[in-house]
Amino acid sequence: MVRATNRTGKLLIGTLALVIGWGTAASYASAADSGFIGRMTKQYTEFEAKHQQAYNRYYRTEKGLYDTYHRQMTAVYDKMLKQARDDLNAMTATFQSDIASLKRSYDENSDAFREYERATDKDRAGDPMNLYEDAMDPDNAGGPMDRFEDSLDPDSAGGATDEYADELDPDSAGSAMDEYADEVDPDSAGSVMDEFADESSVRSSGSVMDRYEDGELTLKEAEKLMAQALAKAEAGMDKRIEETKRAVQNRKNQSLKDIRDAWLNARNSILSQREAAIAAASSAREKLTGTGISFPPLVLDDWMTVVVNGDYMIFEQPPTVVDGTTLVPMRAIFEKLGASVVWRASDRTITAKKGKTAIWLQLGNANAKVGTVARKLEAAPRTVNGSTMVPLRFVSEALGAGVKWDDQLLTITITSSASAS
């Protein structure tokens, strides 16, 4: 509104000048360098296009990462729920078959027989099998799977995914992307783009270009002031971009941590309650028959979280374990650690550089080089779903980064030597 008023004011003043003294206004216009005015208009247009493109590029990248992670963790949730339900049904079928068989040899009215029936009944509230079912039930309010489900629901107010989605939403007032969007909007009063647009416009009353056109500034003065205005605008945009990236990463860190913790809680609750249910049923059966009962272990998929220099990472291809070796996405981690990565398709080689350190690898080749030193890898680099994967240990060997594995949190923490110091 302020900018519109200034520009409207300039138009009114210009009209009044025509009425009062056409000759004076004409002399101002002829004195001004139309070429310079054109260059400043072009400079602003290019500045606006550059930063709006940068905004769009950043938004697409971060939204893509959000969508990728949400898709991946939803798949983890769906698979774990199916595995647990299938296991519960299989255990229930085994118990029912066992009870039917035991009825031929044991008194089903005995206390021991009834105790075994109770221990294997998933519909008896509060008993071990029922608690096992509750642990995996997303409709059990406040239960572990309910909390895991809520953490993934973008419509669950205050949940991890809801907060993450809001930070990336340019229509969510006060979010990082909302403030960035405002900064690149020439119609957002007081924004960097708005202020630079004003200074660049001959129609904005009191602006550099308005004063130049009116003859209040010489060409040299106007050039100097516009150079300062451009530098100020670039600095303002740089500041906004850094603030946005940090705010988005901070939110990402908290949300991914919360989702990881909700998943681990659900996973561990399912496994521990299953163990308790089997132990209770086996104990009851042993009292009845002298022999307990056992089941094969339930193996739920692991999800490895990667944290690099304190920031939680999202990958198109998550880390994976092949023949006992943990493989991680090379490019994303190396670039996060400050290395440049170049892929050469002709010989399927990857060259990475960080400072004076050069690293050479080749797909399918377990021999690598760090500087001039040959290194033998635990496993040859390979492509998985379009991502080059390398042994986790090589990250430490190649870039001198600290690598830690947390077996409780299933989390890989990578810290560059600079961050560690």
From TrEMBL:
It comes from the Bacteria. Residues 307-414 form the Copper amine oxidase-like N-terminal domain. Transmembrane segments: none annotated. This is Copper amine oxidase-like N-terminal domain-containing protein. InterPro entries: Cu_amine_oxidase-like_N (IPR012854), Mao_N_sf (IPR036582). Residues 135-188 are annotated as: Disordered. The keyword Cell membrane does not apply. The lineage of its organism: Bacteria, Bacillati, Bacillota, Bacilli, Bacillales. Keywords: Coiled coil, Signal. Residues 1-31 form the signal peptide. Residues 212-239 form a coiled coil. The keyword Calcium does not apply. It comes from Cohnella xylanilytica.
